[in-house]
Amino acid sequence: MKWQSGRRGSNIDDRRGMSGGQKLTIGGIGGVIVLIIGFLMGGDPAQLLNQMQGQMNGAGTTEGTYESTPEEDRLLDFADVVLASTEDVWTNLFKEAGEGYPKPTMAIYTQGTETGGCGYGQSHFGPFYCPGDQTVYLDLSFNKELSGKYGAKGEFALAYVIAHEVGHHIQNVLGVLQQTNSLRAKMSETAYNKISVMTELQADFYAGVWAHHVNKMTDIELTYQDIVEGMRAAAAVGDDHLQEQAYGHSNPESFTHGTSEQRAYWFKKGYDTGDIRAGDTFSDPSLK
């Protein structure tokens, strides 16, 4: 993946060195759920935040001197370039459809940070997107987990993660998240898990759409090996794989992000077609 000559953007919110202690605020979430890429064990981040509300108290946000490492600086630069490339791709695709594209922000933080409507985010949640403030939240230390814990090696693995979270932003802009969230109170947990899987797989698809257009619309150059790495990264965070790693077995009824095969398939379908209209996971009979 050749990215060094790529455009740097202006939508990075660098919060490293700022700490919110253990403060947790859920006010204003209004039923909006935090949609996280499938690096957790099928846990619902909204529930996690609610559980933590009664457990955690502490000081407010403080700011101190933060000493970055050369590797972290490189990762920040990389994330900036990838985010800017998603802006270029989606701005062009929305323009072709006669629409404007509202660019999301990416907040880079360490350990924990306040969000604009999704409570208090923490590193162990993994990267996530908050619809309330249209922001992708990322702790750069997650890159080590990608390669070490999940076995998703190569630079493109982190690019896939960012593109997936931007995929949730696309869903937010198109009104998909509002529709799926409205179903939450009307369905059983098992039934809603299927909706969650469809939502996550569509975000994987949108990550593939971004990859399809990168070489034509940005200064980043991808090879097919990068796409293979993306498929491996998607497979590495499938619910079945993660649960089998942790427990020795998997429970399909608890899946919230999709199997390894499904995640790799939808990412690849997005890459192959490059057509946002081909990603209607909610109408796929195999996912019902």
TrEMBL record:
Species source reads Sphingobacterium wenxiniae
Primary localization class, coarse = membrane
**Which PANTHER family does the UniProt entry name for this protein?**
INNER MEMBRANE PROTEIN (PTHR30168:SF0), PUTATIVE MEMBRANE PROTEIN YPFJ (PTHR30168)
Task: Give the InterPro entries listed for this entry.
Answer: Uncharacterised_pept_Zn_put
Q: Which Pfam families match?
A: Zn_peptidase
Bilayer-spanning residue ranges: 24-43
GO annotation, cellular component aspect: membrane
Keyword entries, A-Z = Membrane, Transmembrane, Transmembrane helix
Topology relative to the membrane: Single-pass membrane protein
Q: Where in the cell is it found?
A: Membrane
The identity of this protein, by name, is Metalloprotease
